[in-house]
Amino acid sequence: MPRVYIGLGSNLAEPVQQLQAALAAIGQLPRCRLAAVSSLYASDPLGPPDQPRYVNAVAALDCELAPLELLDALQAIEREQGRVRKTERWGPRTLDLDILLFGDLQLDEERLCVPHYHMHARAFVLYPLAEIAADLVLPDGQALQTLLANCPFEGLERLGD
Ligand SMILES: CC1(C)Nc2nc(N)[nH]c(=O)c2N=C1O
Q: What 3-state DSSP class applies to 149?
């Protein structure tokens, strides 16, 4: 059963509660098992600065769903928690659920790109991911520890579980 890593992010409408509710919903997905969840981390927004700080986490899921089935399920959770897909690129959002990795799959399609296109240089993804998968090697052979060495922790604040 593929091990899937999901990035969670929120900076609107009580972000900590948004992530806790999303994790509960992910834990209820059919044919999936929530295997691990990182601590929550706060950080300033990457991109437009005139928006609230983000709260991020990463979850590990053992998943029998097909990639697009999982994507549909995650987008349904985003909608249920109030996310309206805004036109503003990189604007604030109630909830972002990104498939970071889907086993060793490498996919670059319109709806889904895995490994997630931006994950390699985002501290708010790499540090929570390393917390639950320290020895991870990405499908292209890069070790997560190597990515971490090139991505400073600065600006990230661990909020605990
Ligand atoms: C707007 C953009 C790029 N910035 C972010 N910045 C931070 N710190 N965390 C995010 O999850 C996040 N998500 C985004 O989509």
A: helix
Per residue, the 3-state secondary structure of 79-122, as one string, reads HHCCCCCCCCCCCCCCCEEEEEEECCCCEECCCCEECCCCHHHC
Q: Which listed residue (33, 98, 104, 135) is catalytic?
A: 98
Q: List pLDDT tens digits, range 16-72.
A: 999 999 999 999 999 999 999 999 999 999 999 999 999 999 999 999 999 999 999
3-class secondary-structure state, position 125: helix
**83 is annotated as an active-site residue:** yes
Q: Quote ipTM for the complex.
A: 0.98
Which residue type does 80 have? E
pLDDT at 20: 98
- Report how far ligand 1's centroid is from the alpha carbon of 130 (Å): 18
Quick one: pLDDT at residue 161?
54
Q: Cβ < 6 Å from ligand 1: which residues?
A: 9, 43, 45-47, 54, 56, 90, 96, 124
Angstrom distance (rounded) from CA 88 to CA 73: 23
